[in-house]
Amino acid sequence: MLQAIANLGGWLLMMGQHDRSESLFYYFRIEDQVPENHLLRFIDRYVSFAFVREKLRASYSETGRPSIDPEVLLRILLLGYLYGITSERKLLEELRMHLAWRWFTGLGFEQEIPHHSTFSKNRHGRFQESNLFQELFERIVEQCIAAGLVEGEQMSVDGSFIMANASHHSRIPREQFTEAAQVNYGARKYLEELEQENGDGESIHQQDKVSTTDPDSTYLTKGNRAAELGYFDNYLIDNESCVIVGVQATAARLSQESAAARDMIDRYCERYRRRPKGVAADNTYGNGEMLQWLDERGITPYIRVKEGPNSPPDLYGIEKFTYVPEENCYLCPAGKPLNYVGINKRNRAHRYYSTVKRCRGCEQKPQCTRGKFRTIAIHTCEAARQKADEVAKTPEFAAALRKRRKVEALFSELKNLIGLRRLRLRRIKYVREQFYLAAVAQNLKRLVRFLNMRVQPAMATA
Q1: How do residues 304-318 score in pLDDT, each as one tens digit?
Q2: Which residues, at least 6 apart from 178, have a Cβ–Cβ distance to it below 8 Å?
Q3: Where are the alpha helices (DSSP H) in 297-381?
Q4: What residues does each domain of the chain span?
Q5: Helix 70-82 crosses helix 428-461 at what angle (to 10 degrees)?
Q6: What is the C-alpha separation between 133 and 210, in angstroms, rounded?
Q7: Checking CA distances to 352, which of 135, 292, 396, 437 falls within 20 to 30 Å?
């Protein structure tokens, strides 16, 4: 018994007990505490942000008190998008405690963390006026191209709905907006900014009802989901590397997606002096104008044609009719003409009509039409639509659609990891800033890992 008690006492004495006493001083280098394989080490090693000072030099006065280094502010903003922290107050709290973040921004323990209001002043002032975020995004894409990460031959395009920082209950009829601005600060500030822009502002999709909280946001319903206010974030990506090479913020309207795709492709060709050979997208982009635009530029569209056939499958199709260019008319299988009557502006199609008299006694009428007479609709971009139909029958089309899913994975990363399921800023010019920074964060991860993987085999060989 005594032996057992003695053994128990020995065990109790051997059990360690941590003393939470705190030292007055600690002597260590932050540099030594950051692992060599840390993401921020890779970014700091391979990417330079020194251009920020030169770009913003004209925005700072030569006299007065020195301001916070704009490169430091940009690095802090990037941390929020790299690690999914959308609140700037929360971001600065984490920066105060995180050693790797302090090392990345160059802020030692003896240096003061910037106040959260500093971000708003710089973002809405110098950063916004100089298009800094677009320049940063395009420089990262240039580095991806120079490193050989981006092939640029086959691309995909898509848009995703991002909720605005506004409630649908804030919508009022457009004609009441000026009156509401007398008591609503957000609406009053919006009208003041429009007056300062003096008609030079961006054209926004016109709606019958406007949100007093975020007048630029668009009310949209899609599928079975409830209608919400928001914007479209449009991506143009390289299929092989999954690098985003184009970003565009638009109103949440399906018609805006094709326009954004054309703008992003044009910008890519102009900025980087390269042109893709093929572009994949869903059938939202399969309108005749988009298909013809791609065809004119020698870009193969891996897109299903949006418009349906001219007639039901059990009736005569357009292939049964013969076009007569001299008279600009079609001859039906019975040899009777269908005359041209003009363009239908609603569906952008040339219309060819027969008459009741011609079709009344025709023996082939049951196989031709269920109406009193036959009509034919030929899209104004019919040649491009026919080419797209032929491309859809090739094996390359199926392969391009499989790779198109990568852009959907990027939107999933945007919402789930970066946390941009709902926007924090309002107005489309500030929404665009969030989209650029999110795309920069996504590209940075792929670029630095690619560069590091390329360096490791060379080091192993040496």
Answers
A1: 887 654 556 778 877
A2: 191
A3: 356-360, 365-368
A4: 32-59+66-130, 137-304+392-461, 318-380
A5: 80
A6: 28
A7: 292
